[in-house]
Structures are given as C-alpha cells and as structure tokens.
C-alpha cells in the first residue's frame, strides 16, 4: 500500500482536471482528495495499492484534454487508510 502527496503545476485549472482525476481515481479504486491552489497549481493526496497508484500517477502526468502538465512534485507519505473515496475539495 502506498500514499503520495502531489503538487501539479502548469495549465491544470479550468480544464476539468479535478473532475477527471476523481473519475480516474474511482476507476482505479484510489482514495484521497484533490483541490485547486490559489497559485494556479493543483494538490492531491492519494493512497491505494502500489499498482493503482502507479497508474494514477501516469494519468496525473498528462491530465485531461486541455491540460498542460509542466511538473508533478511527488512526496511519499505514510499509508494511513483514512479515506473512503477521492473527494474534490472546493
């Protein structure tokens, strides 16, 4: 099991990135949260099995149509099993 914290920069707001991230997470079984940051970046905390997190990371590096991902900063965290699904924070 694995937990990651991501900060994604580039053109990631206004392109349905949060919604599509939730859809991807729901498909893979990844749990956590996603939110937009005031500086135009996006932040995600996600946890699940290693294979699901790896596929989720692949998606986060490209994003939905219209997104331009410039950087994905990844921080490994201690797995906590505290989420029921991936929530969109507003």
Provide a brief overview of the structure.
The chain is an alpha+beta fold. The protein has one domain (2-80): Alpha-Beta Plaits, CATH 3.30.70.100. The chain has helices spanning 17-28, 50-62, and strands at 2-11, 31-36, 42-48, 68-77, 86-88.
Describe this structure in words.
The chain is α+β, with helices and mostly antiparallel strands and 90 residues long. It has one domain: Alpha-Beta Plaits (2-Layer Sandwich). Helices cover 28% and strands 40% of the residues. It contains two helices and five strands. A five-stranded mixed sheet has the order 4-1-3-2-5, with helices on one face. Helix 1 packs antiparallel against helix 2. The protein starts with a strand and ends with a strand. The relative contact order is 0.35. The model has no long low-confidence stretch (mean pLDDT 98).
Q: Which secondary structure elements does this structure contain, and how are they paired or packed?
A:
Layout: E1 2-11, H1 17-28, E2 31-36, E3 42-48, H2 50-62, E4 68-77, E5 86-88
Parallel strand pairs: 2-5
Antiparallel strand pairs: 1-3, 1-4, 2-3
Which fold name corresponds to the CATH topology? Answer: Alpha-Beta Plaits
Separation, N- and C-terminal Cα atoms: 27 Å
H/E element order: EHEEHEE
User: What is the overall pLDDT average?
Assistant: 98
Order of strands in the sheet with the most strands?
4-1-3-2-5
Shape by Cα distribution: globular
Kindly state the percentage of residues in helix: 25-40%
Would you report the number of β strands? 5
CATH classification, class level: Alpha Beta
Q: How many distinct folded domains? A: 1
Percent of sequence in beta strands? 35-45%
- What is Rg? 12 Å
Poorly predicted runs of 5 or more residues: none
Largest sheet: 5 strands, mixed
Secondary structure class reads alpha+beta
- CATH structural architecture: 2-Layer Sandwich
DSSP summary: helix tally: 2
């Amino acid at each position: 099991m694995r937990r990651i914290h991501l900060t994604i920069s580039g053109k990631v707001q206004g392109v349905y990135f949060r919604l599509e991230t939730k859809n991807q997470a729901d498909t893979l079984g990844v749990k956590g949260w996603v939110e937009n940051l005031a500086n135009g970046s996006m932040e995600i905390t996600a946890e699940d099995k290693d294979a699901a997190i790896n596929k989720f990371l692949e998606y986060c590096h490209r994003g939905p149509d219209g997104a331009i991902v410039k950087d994905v900063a990844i921080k490994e965290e201690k797995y906590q099993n505290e989420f029921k699904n991936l929530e969109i924070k507003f």
